Amino acid sequence: MRSTLWQKLFSWLDERLGLNDAYKNLLDRPEPKGNWWNTLGSASLFLFILQAVTGIFLTVYYTPSPDHAYDSIQYIMTEVQFGWLVRGIHHWSASLMVIVVFIHMLRVFFTASYKYPRELTWLIGIGLLLLTVGMGFTGYLLPWHQMAYWATTVGTQIAGSVPFAGEFILKSLRGGPDLSALTLQRFFAAHIWILPALLVALIGVHLYLIIRHGESHFPDKED
Amino acid sequence: MTDETKKKINAKYERELLHGERFWPDSLFKDAIVALGIFIFLVLLATFVGVHDSPKADPSDTSYVPRPEWYFLFLFKFLALYGQIPVFGKIEWVATVLIPGIAIGLLTLLPFIDKSPQRYYAKRAMPIAIMTIMVLGMVLLTMTADVPTVAADGSGLLGNLQTVAGLIVPSLAYIAFVGMAYTLKENAVRAIAWTTALAAALMIGFTAATLALYQPAAVAVIEIPTTLADQIVAGQDLYSVHCVECHGDDGKVEEITGVEGLEGKKISIISSKDVLYTVNDASMAEIIAYGRPDSGMNPFGKAYNPEGLTRSEIDYVVTFMRYTWDDRFEAPYIAPLYPPLAEGEVPSYSVHIEPIVKRYCISCHRPGKDNNNYLMTSYEELLTTGDNASHNLISNDPTSYLLQVIQQIPITDPASGEELIGVMPPNKALKPEIVEVFVRWVQAGMPK
Ligand code: HEM
What we know:
The complex is a heterodimer of chains A (223) and B (448).
Chain A: H1 5-17, H2 19-27, E1 30-31, H3 39-61, H4 69-78, H5 83-110, H6 119-141, H7 146-159, H8 166-174, H9 181-213
Chain B: H1 3-18, E1 21-22, H2 23-49, H3 73-82, H4 92-108, H5 110-113, H6 125-143, H7 157-184, H8 188-213, H9 228-242, H10 244-247, H11 273-278, H12 281-290, H13 311-325, H14 349-360, H15 379-384, H16 389-392, H17 401-406, E2 411-412, E3 419-421, H18 432-443
Antiparallel strand pairs in B: 2-3
Helix pairs in contact in B: 3-6, 6-7, 6-8, 7-8, 9-13, 12-13, 14-18
Bound molecules: protoporphyrin IX containing FE.
Protoporphyrin IX containing FE (HEM) binds at residues 38, 40-42, 44-45, 48, 101, 104-105, 108, 113-114, 118, 121-122, 125-126, 128-129, 132, 203, 206, 210, 215-216 of chain A.
């Protein structure tokens, strides 16, 4: 049988990468009848990827120091080509992601999709919800403007009201008794390395579990 | 859960798959449409709404009212309402740590608490009811986040309404749910559904009443200069108000005149290369914030001077100084202070005089300065204040004191020959075209 160049290339790659297997296992899966509520998980994933892409662009110009953070953001907004668009998307998408992830959680709750065999998926999901909120909290400080500064002051104070350990938590969040350059550096590290790394890892497990157990069906009177 | 039930669940799932859809292309198609919609929505938001500006962080400005990200607002409101409860309200960590901690804990362990295999909605009235009330409470608390618990006139009505909507009704509903689940058992579904509806209606009603009764105080909108040109202009205005009295509008003053306590003091020319080349932006901002108290310049940072400048404002002043005097910086296009007058055009206060006064006179002619009690911060003040108010501005009279002093003619006391009012501004004459604006304005009877 004669085959075109493309077919040759495909079969060469397939032998090595297992493209056909991947297609069968990842894409060509049967699912119960779904509806638009089922798109919220992938919408969360899309927003996460969008945040990663726009966030990487922002770090090109952003400087995490109290002296320059504010000005570097102003620079992005006024001087950098399409900087306003990238920051605008990152800003709004952060809020939207919190909403979408939360509603995704509600949909899983109302359809009782957290029950056997998807308990772990739920557990990982709670981790994802907390990490998403954590991303919002740490990211909010980075522009180093008045709202950010004072909101974080109060936010960390609340964490500091934990009995016994409060003092320690407060100091480790702020890197000292007050908000300072250390706090900004810390929040920056958490926002661009620590939390995203955890998110990627947990999303990986989340998705693996979803493929392993398949999307749950919407319950009817028998369930 | 027995192996029997597990088998049943899995068998049911296999049956569902038989009349289901394919992940590719059916589900992914829907996912892609939603992603595209979200992306377009975000681009529109970024383009037409933009990002809300706020001035640069200023740790010394403790008067700033903190406002968390919107998705934490409900927690803050909850804290505020909880703080109103007598006795318990004083134990802060119950509301900040214990209650949120329990809520997150319950949510996390949900699959291990709710272990029944039943998934159909009607068989799960209790968890659904609890969650509905919870989410509704969060939404309503967020909506009332800006309503104070104690009104300006000291009345607690708003606070009480909010407490009923946000704490009391939900708590009563939860107690009722538990009670019904234990007493009615299998028949509790209807009762729980009705209780949920009733509680939700009450919560919405009380919140609506709160919002209807609350009259928000008008908030002053602060314009934040974002472009370089705007920042330079903002800096120039601030410089005019705070620095001109000592350093002059061009920074060239070498010997201070007309300032109480510093008369005749020799200072360095701050617009000279000597200063601009040796002092970098950070040190310049520091000089302005900390002042030179030993030689007579008072600190301008908010921390040392309540009427002083914020961090952003100090930065604008430095930007202004750089782009105006430092030959290493090239200033962008900046709109003129006032629109140039055409032949025979009559100047007005708001368009011409106000910006001029703001730049050249207000630094001395505002409360708390030595100025013969002549204040210039508004139209009324300009016309009516001053020790010589009746002579300063007389409609269509070229001997108005103000016109004389800005034309380098000091006013002297006819009896003693003593100088009453020196020339204005004391340190440097106004440009002829600006004097011309004042002259024409007085000629026309000082229109507003
Ligand atoms: C960054 C955040 C998250 C991402 C990217 C994500 C992603 C996804 C995706 C793509 C799906 C499959 C499609 C769907 O059912 O919508 C899914 C399902 C699921 N998610 Fe998430 N999720 C996130 C957060 C959460 C949270 C906060 C929870 C709950 C606490 C959760 C629990 C679940 C469960 C139990 C399923 C299985 C649903 C079923 O099989 O019907 N996830 N998630």
